Amino acid sequence: MSAVNRETAPQLRTTTRERDVTVDVRDAGVPLIQLNSGASIPQIGFGSLGIQPDRQATRSNIEVASAVVRAALRAGYRHIDTAQMYGTEDGIGEAIARCGISRNDLFITTKLGNGNHSPDAVRPSLEQSLAKLHIDHVDLFLMHWPLPTLYDGDFVSTWQAMIDLRLAGLATSIGVSNFQPAHLNRIIEATGVVPAVNQIEMHPRFANDVARSNSMQHGIAPEAWTPLGKGRYLEDPVLVEIASQLNRSVPQVMLRWHIQRGTIVIPKTVHPDRMAENLAIFDFMLSPEAMSAIASLDAGEAGRIGPHPDTFDWVPSADTPNPSH
Ligand SMILES: NC(=O)c1ccc[n+]([C@@H]2O[C@H](COP(=O)([O-])OP(=O)(O)OC[C@H]3O[C@@H](n4cnc5c(N)ncnc54)[C@H](OP(=O)(O)O)[C@@H]3O)[C@@H](O)[C@H]2O)c1
């Protein structure tokens, strides 16, 4: 299989504005995806679920998350993905405050917690997130889950409250996560406002093509959570073969597959060498044959790792601080 078309490796460089910052800023050649809101999002971001031992915002967790995110910023990430339910907003806020990178050069996403869907809870929850993040607006605010079995099945009012936040300038773009076609169609029909992004589970074992293509038909940018399949398929023989032909790692091949499908990716790792490895995916290409071979790994619903959006109904509480999956 001829799997590669090598391009010239992008230069790593320090820009004038970034020369004075406290971190070693690199330009990793990350493409920008234009959103339907008019804003642009770096096609690769840094996932922050699980970068600290648990979801509690304890002082020690804040320090751990802050150190991990500062390492990610040093590696070159400028797009950070968090959520009200991850417990990482405080640590990320500390990293943002300490890193010395201009706010305009960062793209910060957070997500509405499952306990905050009541329309009158949406704005206070985002204001709390902004305080934790030490910023006055997020670049992207996502409804984390549709929760069709909770709140009388009314995620439309929740979406309307998010639209108001965008109009108020607290979020530059708004979007959704884990929205199936029926969920998406419903909020668009009811409000006329199309989400900028749909962040859904996608990896080679679960291409999630129905939700992905429905999103794209609406002009919504698809974003992959668990883009590396949580590291479960690193030994897959098809991926290993492609990686060895390209002299690349399996995670790089998986991420490159997403990138060539036009998907935004947010891989998570706590290791600086892996942060750099996952970012070094813009100086090679997968051939059409390699793309097809990876597509053949899709197991449909059997490949889904996380919960199904039609039934997921976890709301964080003192008794259930973590989801069951
Ligand atoms: N919207 C949603 O409902 C939703 C749900 C889940 C996740 N997310 C978001 O998506 C992000 C990514 O998903 P995820 O964290 O579930 O999984 P993931 O990024 O697919 O995989 C992370 C796992 O892969 C390992 N890994 C990362 N890079 C590696 C490399 N180069 N070589 C070997 N192993 C590597 C990590 O281990 P180490 O850390 O030990 O390197 C970790 O165990 C999350 O952090 C979160 O921001 C969103």
Task: Give a structural overview.
The chain has helices at 59-75, 89-99, 119-133, 155-167, 181-191, 209-217, 237-246, 250-260, 272-279, 288-295; strands spanning 32-34, 40-42, 46-47, 79-81, 107-112, 138-143, 171-177, 197-201, 221-225, 264-265. Helix 1 (59-75) crosses helix 2 (89-99) and helix 4 packs across helix 5. It has 10 helices and 10 strands. An 8-stranded parallel sheet has the order 3-4-5-6-7-8-9-10. It has a two-stranded antiparallel ribbon with strand order 1-2. The two termini are 37 Å apart. Residues 1-26 have low confidence and may be disordered. It has 325 residues and is α/β, with parallel strands linked by helices. It has a single domain (32-303), classed as TIM Barrel. The radius of gyration is 19 Å and the shape is globular. Bound molecules: NADP nicotinamide-adenine-dinucleotide phosphate. NADP nicotinamide-adenine-dinucleotide phosphate binds next to helix 9.
Short description:
This protein has 325 residues and is of the alpha/beta class. The protein has helices at 59-75, 89-99, 119-133, 155-167, 181-191, 209-217, 237-246, 250-260, 272-279, 288-295; strands at 32-34, 40-42, 46-47, 79-81, 107-112, 138-143, 171-177, 197-201, 221-225, 264-265.
Strand content: 5-15%
Biggest pleated sheet = 8 strands, parallel
The CATH architecture name reads Alpha-Beta Barrel
Helix content: 25-40%
- Average pLDDT for all residues: 91
The total count of strands amounts to 10
Q: So what's the overall shape?
A: globular
Query: Helix count, per DSSP?
Result: 10
Low-confidence stretches: 1-26
Structural class: alpha/beta
Order of helices and strands: EEEHEHEHEHEHEHEHHEHH
Distance between the termini: 37 Å
> Major sheet: order of its strands?
3-4-5-6-7-8-9-10
CATH superfamily: NADP-dependent oxidoreductase domain
